[in-house]
Amino acid sequence: MYETDLLMCIAFILLFMYISGAIRDYMKYRRQFWNIRGPKSLPLTIIAYIFTARSNADRFEVLQNLSKRYPRYYSVWFGTKYLFVTDDPHVSQKLLTIPDCVEKNFFMDFFGFPRGLIAMKSDRWKYERKLLNSSFSLSTLQSYVPIFTKCITKSIEHLKANCDKGEFDIKHDVTVVVMNAVMNTTFGKDISRDVAKIFMENTDKYLDNIWNRAMMPHYHYDLIYNLSSLKRDQDKNRKFFFDFITNEWNQIQNGNCNDADVENSFIGQLLKVSKNGRNYEIEDILDHCGTMMVAAADTMSTALNFIVLMLAMHENVQDCIIKEINDVLGDECMKEDLIIDYEKLSTLKYVEMTIKEALRLFTPATGLFRETKADVDLGIENIQLPKGTNLVINIYGLHRKKEIWGDDAHLFKPERFDFENSYDKSPFAFLPFASGIRMCVGNRYAMIFMKLIVLHYVKNFHFSTSLKYDEMRVKAGITLKLIGNHLVKITRRGTERL
What we know:
The protein contains 21 helices and eleven strands. The protein is α+β, with helices and mostly antiparallel strands. A hairpin with a 6-residue loop joins strand 5 (376-377) and strand 6. Helix 9 (193-215) crosses helix 11 (229-253).
């Protein structure tokens, strides 16, 4: 009886705190809420609206339909959080370039690596970004090309076993090559397919837990979340990453690693910065490397899985890529052990257009999340945003707006990114790597790797699929996911001139 009364007392206190927070925030933002268009629900009630959907895909569609119902921007309550949401490039430009809008909001607090560049608070981020610029400098990225190529070559050898054997889910193969590349460039360490699989399984669980917390507003409160099984699962997954990173850091500091492998790796760059006066604590190392392992690997594997599927659905695109490979590489393309240099890789414009079009339609991060650090006047239609307003840029909706991309915005057409077709578009109409003050530091890293994957995969294989483009359905998580398997059939291309 005593235990029951105690639990009821705790539940009442938590409920009181939750409702008090809702009332407090409503009073703070009520003027903006009623002045800015959007569904006029009180705090908490929008949750019921969203969760009447039957699946994650339906919920994602509900949220996208809000942007269609309220063009350009709207405000809405989610739990006790007041959100200002936009899918307009001009409003997005303001949000991404005004210094008082650079803070990451509550959603990124759930990410779990607060000292990493993605979730780091803005006052520290500017200083830290300068220190780590060398980790993503052009010279460092150029040194990664042979490493990327080595990882991709291993993947190709494994894929050959699936040639002419019918359709299979290529997601695992793509995920493994991405994780291997990330581990090589983060730690200077090669890993097996089985180890890569273990890391990606933990990554998937970790990110799913973040999304589940974000979608359950009562878990936005640490006091409630810390009592949940979700917190225990998240701690277990985080410990998996931290144990690995701690071991690698200790091995490097004790001189038990190959200096040549580690020198240009991300953790090697952290060691250099630390020796030059930054004096990183182990928590800094854990969060920086954890961010690379989780965020970089998941976003790139998500993007590449959709890119491969688009290639399989569009044979004409593969033909154009083959023609470009022939034009740029000539007889070099016949080499089994082809290692293309950065300069020639940069000339593969159609390959780049193909990647960008896939990123437009299936951008891994469906939204950008910020928070105002002070009262902000956007200078657009008298929009005034008070300090603490949560900002959301709906990238998925922005990338599919017919007003920007045309009536066929839903179709896959790499030619959209030909200069003649894209020069008149706002630079903030295409945001796969964000833009403005906190643009993704790894954008060139990702593009180099993805171009190499597309080059080598198409050079070696012809892709096809029974899946139909107009029947594809997606769902949102931390990154965009296809509902169903990434089914493709591959056949070997000849080694003669392509």
